[in-house]
Write a structure and sequence with these properties.
Residues 1-18 form the signal peptide. This is FAS1 domain-containing protein. This protein has helices at residues 2-17, 20-27, 30-33, 40-46, 50-58, 78-82, 86-94, 96-104, 174-180, 182-194, 214-218, 224-229, 232-240, 321-337; strands at 71-76, 107-109, 121-124, 131-137, 140-143, 146-155, 158-163, 207-212, 243-245, 258-260, 266-272, 275-278, 281-290, 293-298. The protein is α+β, with helices and mostly antiparallel strands.
């Protein structure tokens, strides 16, 4: 009875001596405020990144990402996965090795918080040889060109930054990308070789390249491409008009923005709704990631101001238009074939 009485008196004294400040100190204790109970996959589920969790599980990465870490995960939201072409999703669903590689490209070993992110910072991912490029444009942060829409979501084994897009591992440098996609860029590759710029765009950069497609080159005035290919200095001036120092993903572009190219002349960006133009060329695929910068695919060749070309004189030839076009095409093929692609 005496022991019980002493215990009751002790409790009474403790509560008697407590103040409202003691209560708030308990509530506002940092260990309570920042208490984290979820690992990366569990936190991703709470953040409604359900497609990411589904893909991580399918690729066999849920276990590793539940381990001690720490990891930094750039996690695309469901809408980001929904914007992927169906053909690409089908490939990833059928090839779990490739799916795992794409997902590993979204993970950095170690905890990297937003306060540590600086413009042009590159960080190695769990995919060997593939770095994420981080850029800061004012208040906007991008990871390999995809906007970070929510930062510093804490897990027990790391941190998640939510992305508004899915990052695809780079195929290599600007030149390497063009070489690996000949159906789109074979003429660009020939032009880079002829102008002695292929090695330059294999360099560290970073560069932003507005890359014309094969069709864009084909749409040049008759004789213009042959004229360029036979005049390397003139060709280099045109190609350098497509290259900007630094990484300008679409998040960095604004309507009316003028950007100085390596040619020394400016190009002008125009934005109307979802349509983006550089001078008079439409951007038909933006934010292609390469190891030394970014590529925007355009549907026309950008021509520096006041540049002129030799042209086939329609008034001084008796060749009918169809024959003349075929003759031009054969001359073009012959000229292209004279340059060895490295």
């Amino acid at each position: 009875m005496r022991v019980l009485l002493v215990a009751l008196l002790t409790v009474t004294i403790v509560f008697t001596n407590a103040s409202p400040a003691d209560l708030w100190r308990a509530v506002l204790d940092p260990e309570v405020l920042y208490e984290v109970s979820d690992n990366i996959p569990a936190l991703a589920t709470k953040l409604n990144l359900t497609t990411l969790v589904q893909f991580v599980t399918k690729a066999g990465l849920a276990g590793p990402l539940s381990g001690p870490g720490p990891f930094t995960v750039f996690g695309p939201d469901n809408a980001a996965f929904g914007k992927l072409p169906k053909a690409l999703v089908d490939i990833l669903m059928k090839n779990t090795t490739l799916l795992a590689e794409v997902l590993k490209y979204h993970v950095i070993a170690g905890a990297v918080y937003s306060s540590a992110i600086t413009n042009e910072l590159t960080a190695p991912t769990l995919l060997p040889g593939a770095d994420i490029r981080l850029n800061v444009y004012g208040k906007t942060v991008t990871a390999s060109g995809r906007k970070v829409i929510k930062v510093d979501q804490n897990a027990t084994n790391g941190v998640i930054h939510v992305l508004g897009g899915v990052m695809l591992p780079p195929a290599g440098t600007v030149t390497k990308l063009a070489q690996e996609t000949p159906k789109t860029f074979s003429t660009l590759v020939h032009a880079l070789v002829a102008a002695n710029l292929a090695n330059a765009l294999n360099g560290p950069g970073p560069f932003t390249v507005f890359a014309p497609t094969n069709q864009a080159f084909a749409n040049l005035p008759p004789g213009a491409l042959i004229d360029l290919l036979k005049n390397p200095k003139k060709l280099a001036a045109v190609l350098l008009y497509h290259v900007v120092d630094g990484t300008f993903y679409s998040a960095a572009l604004s309507d009316g923005l003028k950007v100085q190219t390596k040619n020394g002349k400016n190009v002008t960006v125009s934005i109307s709704g979802s349509n983006v133009k550089v001078n008079d060329a439409n951007v038909i695929e933006a934010d292609v990631t390469v190891t030394n910068g970014a590529v925007h695919v355009i549907d026309a060749v950008l021509l520096p101001p006041n540049m002129r070309f030799e042209r086939i004189d329609e008034h001084r030839t008796h060749i009918v238009p169809v024959q003349k076009h075929e003759q031009y095409r054969m001359r073009l093929i012959k000229t292209l074939n004279s340059f060895q692609v490295v």
